[in-house]
Amino acid sequence: MRKSIFVVIALAMVLASCSAPKQVAYFQDVSGKDTLITNLTLQPLKVQPGEKLMIVVHSSVPELAVRFNLPIVGYRLGAGNTSQSYNSTYATMSYTVSPEGTIDFPVLGVIKVEGMTRSEVAEYVKNRLVDEKHCTDAIVNVELSNAYVNVMGEVNRPGRYELTQDNVTILDILSQSSDLNVLGLRQNVMVGRKTPEGTQVYKLDMTNMQQLMSSPAYMMQQGDLVYVEPNKVRKRQATVNGNNLLNTSFWISIASLIVSIVSVVTR
């Protein structure tokens, strides 16, 4: 009798410990068949106050384009030159967007760029240069030089990750951070986003692809904060012996103690 009770309890504990928790797998709503998600909305990065824009103008005549590029000038003495003349080397610096959402562009003056995409800024500057005959064959490139996303919580590599292109998804960012670790809560990944009204917080369920990809937070924006909440196992680690109740050997010991007590009582 004693042995049979012990074997049954021990077997139940072992089977429970070996079952794979459903909370670990992503996209559990997707069946074995191909799935088409049609409500995905692309969100290219838009210029915000305080950001840095690198705007470079190219032309077949370099002398026409150079005055529209902000130079970082470094000086060095010419080789074998004993006089005080210098040779200069150039690199391009960025424009800082003012709190009013503007930049002061050479020759063109103050330009309102807040809320525009990089391609829209490039198109606007190019059209102004061509229409006003400053540079009739202008080619304009625009890059955001300080766009980033912060990742915190239960990921393998938390940190700050740069946004180098438009339409970067939260899956891209989590991949860069080497994915959630096994202690991360897949059903409650939070994204904090600054808005003119305050900070908007979104909660994403990584186990539900349809819900994830239909969220405005699926596409990352500069300045977003991604936080992966710890699951119950991680939270219990903050207390002394917090996870003992989930330990198989703990329950086997308890079962053995109960069987021993029952055996003594029945005798």
Beta-strand residue fraction = 25-35%
Protein structure class: alpha+beta
Provide the helix percentage: 25-40%
Mean of the pLDDT scores? 81
Question: What is the level 1 CATH name of the domain at 52-144?
Answer: Alpha Beta
Question: For this structure, what is the CATH homologous superfamily of the domain at 52-144?
Answer: wza like domain
Total DSSP helices: 7
* Beta strand count: 12
Order of helices and strands: HEHEEEEEHEEEHEEHEHH
User: What is the gyration radius calculated from CA atoms?
Assistant: 30 Å
Assign an overall shape.
elongated
Distance between the termini: 12 Å
Largest sheet, described in full? Answer: 5 strands, mixed
Unreliable stretches: 14-20, 80-90
The strands making up the biggest β-sheet line up spatially as: 9-8-12-10-11
CATH architectural label of the domain at 52-144: 2-Layer Sandwich
Q: If you consult CATH, what is the topology of the domain at 52-144?
A: wza like fold
